[in-house]
Amino acid sequence: xxSKALTHRSLPIHIDNHxxxxxxxxxxxxxTLLYYYFSTEATxxxxxxxxxxxxxxxxxxxxxxxxxxxLRIHGQFANPFVEWRxxxxxxxxxxxxxxxxxxxxxxSALPITKPSFDxxxxxxxSALDGPSRLPPSIRVFGTxxxxxxxxxxxxATVTASAPxxxxxxxxxIVFDPAPAPEQGPRMTYTWLGQSTSFVTMDGxxxxxxxxxxxxxxxxxxxxxxxxxxxxxxxxxxxxxxxLVSHNHRDHLDxxxxxxxxxxxxxxxxxxxxxxxxxxxxxxVIELDWWQEIHHKERQDIVIAAVPCMHWSGRCxxxxxxxxxxxxxxxxxxxxSFLHW
Length: 340
Ligand SMILES: *[C@@H]1O[C@H](CO)[C@@H](O)[C@H](O)[C@H]1NC(C)=O
Ligand SMILES: *[C@@H]1O[C@H](CO)[C@@H](O)[C@H](O)[C@H]1NC(C)=O
Known about the structure:
Largest sheet: 7 strands, mixed
Bound molecules: 2-acetamido-2-deoxy-beta-D-glucopyranose
Number of strands: 13
Shape: globular
Strand content: 15-25%
Oligomer: single chain
Number of domains: 2
């Protein structure tokens, strides 16, 4: 109320109380907020009632595909599971308080280790002519203090008895009796933080929910990473496909979309294609729950989107639940894995 123009004396009606304007402002603000609260609450209740009606209708359905088909009500996706419950606001507050307080044990419990790149991208056949020529990183596996970020190998290239010599490693690597050195390890899984992981499967390379930025919204704004990255995006020399489970910012990093653009095929849940197309990225395959597809360039690889419980939105509340969320099952002739 500093400005002269705004005092009660300048009003057409003479109000003889200097508190009247602030009181009026307070009244307008609080009634707007109350109106907003009650109207969203009413919408939320109506939506929840509609969701319950759908659940009742689906109760008698026999097939899982029908019972747990994706559910859309008034343009918004919902969880067709009786088990789903909304997260109350105070749980969110507690979560963030915990984040601010930090976790001092994290550094020792989760040491950051560089992925074994020579295992992920094995050198050419000629360089690998026997167990003694295994890339050095393989010997790291099964040491006394294994760490979570080690790449985990299910079936490696060489026949048994390999690197037990010297260091006496209890093999966490299971060696496949049938040698296929030209293919490298048939399956590796490398966790890169949050839901970002790099999976190689029969020579097919998969990146999941890629986030490589230091912060969640953009490089200078938004919550910071809890742990730094074990490697950079460019270290993953070849990526065939990217699986995106939903559009939350801690699962889909716009910077990565810019960098990879159309060089990879993006497998995404329903309703997210427009977001990619607006950024000039067309190499995307949108899947609904239960849909599966053979990857075009590798017909032996099947990618299926399957149900999961969650929600979506990058600019909440404007785009809340406008696109779907999903888990993925990826299958090759020999292997399969679930990303959720
Ligand atoms: C979004 O969907 C989730 C899951 O169904 C639900 O709990 C939440 O209330 C929805 N949010 C809005 C704003 O509709
Ligand atoms: C992706 O590449 C296309 C050309 O292929 C370009 O038009 C578009 O701007 C690129 N998108 C991003 C996000 O860099």
